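Hypothesis: this fold can be encoded by more than one sequence.
Test: take the structure tokens below, design a sequence, compare later.
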């Protein structure tokens, strides 16, 4: 497997002559051209990563870090959406339906009581597992199979 040694700079190199499938050899050639690298440099780097067992671990670690950042953004976005929805419900319960302006303080108090009731109902619904939008968001297109709310 090993051939003659070559001395280049500080590193001694062994010449090997592995066989590759035609398709893989063409892919290697295209990669080397695209990245302005020699075949030896690409093969040596890939083989070192493979033998060290670091290649897959590093890729997985990078992907997990990216997923973690993405989940953080999703969490923040969801928090904003829930806050906006709660604000919308609160305003709707305070100001809808239109009531005479002279009852504004009373209307605000009623709206706050309605909002508190809404939150209690929502909590109870979530604890039961019932979902109002289940037919719209489930994978099953048949709404009759959705959980009762």
């Amino acid at each position: 497997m090993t051939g003659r040694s070559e001395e280049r700079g500080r590193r001694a190199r062994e010449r090997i002559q592995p066989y590759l499938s035609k398709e893989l050899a063409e892919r290697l050639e295209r990669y080397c051209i695209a990245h302005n690298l020699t075949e030896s440099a690409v093969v040596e780097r890939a083989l070192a990563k493979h033998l060290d067992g670091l290649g897959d671990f590093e890729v997985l670690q990078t992907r997990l870090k990216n997923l973690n950042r993405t989940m953080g953004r999703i969490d923040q976005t969801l928090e904003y959406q829930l806050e906006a929805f709660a604000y919308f419900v609160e305003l709707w319960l305070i100001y809808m339906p239109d009531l005479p302006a002279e009852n504004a303080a009373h209307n605000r108090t009623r709206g706050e009581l309605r909002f508190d009731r809404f939150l209690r109902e929502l909590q109870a619904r979530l604890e039961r597992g019932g979902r109002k939008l289940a037919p719209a968001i489930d994978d099953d297109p048949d709404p009759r199979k959705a959980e009762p709310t």
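The longest helix spans residues 54-95. The two ends are 70 Å apart (CA to CA).
Hypothesis status: open.
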